[in-house]
Amino acid sequence: MASSTTVHSQAGLPLPKASAPREAALRFATPSFAETFNIEPLATAHNLSDLEIFSYDYLRNLAEKYLANPADAFVASSAPSANADFNSVPHGQHAPHVAMTLLDQAPYRVLLKRPEKYDTGFRELIDALFASISEAKGGFGGDKIVRLESSVFVSSAKTTTPIHFDPEVGFFCQIAGEKIYHVYPPANVTEAELEPFYIKSSVEIGKVDVNRRDPAREHVFQLSAGKGLHQPQNAPHWVETCSSQSISYSVVLETESTRSLGRTRAFNHYIRRAGIAPSEPGKHPAADALKANAMNAILPMRKLAGKVVRGVKGQH
Ligand SMILES: [Fe+2]
Fold it and tell me: How many angstroms does the Cα of residue 161 sit away from the middle of ligand 1?
């Protein structure tokens, strides 16, 4: 590890205990959160770890509710290394509630997406945390929230989630056990690396090479109960659990402007493919908006084409 890596091991000031999800809150390591929002990774503290909804029995019951909607859950093995291809790691071996009983026997990672759809406690939790984030940021102004959802992660000891980036702004909370979370600011990814992701509407995860990241820009968060981090959109990250099982929770959001930026990048991808170097998003906001609007018309067609291809696949 390079000596210039920024290591975060403190959670900051403790929060008042939450006895119900509606009392949950985040606290940011610096009062300048509003200035660094969606630019730099930042340590957070939270008071979620003692909530009943994160007890093993509650989570196992929650996992059973996913039997009717298997696409909302993801069970995977540990990746062999941080740089492994995300989709090449074996997955789908068990239903999530079954994998949760096997965590001691094999290195599994269980992801329960959008628990707020299945449980009122998790609905209250995401609403409380969004209020906490919005207050710390000083509101979102006219920037409309177009997606707000959460995930629960239950993992065996000694598992690795390989490096990737997500097209959303994240707030990660370690509930139980320990995790080492490696994250780079989005400025450490080139535009050429980001752009293809935004034209592939069927892809949920952005792939990047860990060896092309600048070690001097790496943030390492040593997470345990009560600690967390803010992860900007498109920030490459990879995660390791330590010697015990781990429970984590994350809230992600997209705003109209973060989504529009994705459409601008999709447009730039086509310009770059035509041999012209596009201007970086943010340098010419009026041009960015024109590009995003143009992609509004193009992307739905691509999405439809993708759906048709996926529908035909396997039908021979
Ligand atoms: Fe991620």
Answer: 8
Protein residues within 5 Å, CB atom, of ion ligand 1: 166
Per-residue pLDDT reduced to its tens digit, 43-102 = 999 999 999 999 999 999 999 999 999 999 999 998 888 888 877 888 888 999 999 999
Domains and CATH numbers, the chain: 6-255 (2.60.120.650), 260-303 (no CATH)
Dist. CA 181 → ligand 1 center (Å): 10
CA 29 to centroid of ligand 1, rounded, Å: 21
Ligand 1 center to 254 CA (angstroms): 14
The region of weakest confidence among 121-130, 179-188, 255-264 is 255-264
Q: How far is the CA of 276 from the centre of ligand 1 (A)?
A: 31
Task: State the distance from the centre of ligand 1 to the C-alpha of 237, rounded, in angstroms.
Answer: 7
Query: CB under 8 Å, gap of 24 or more: what pairs does 282-290 form?
Result: 288/260, 288/261, 288/264, 289/260, 289/264
- Condensed to tens digits (0 to 9), the pLDDT of residues 149-166 reads 999 999 999 999 999 988
Beta carbons of 279 and 287 less than 8 angstroms apart: yes
- Helix/strand/coil (H/E/C) assignment for every residue in 227-283: EEEEECCCCCEEEEECCCCEEEEEEEEEEHHHHHHHHHHHHHHHHHHCCCCCCCCCC
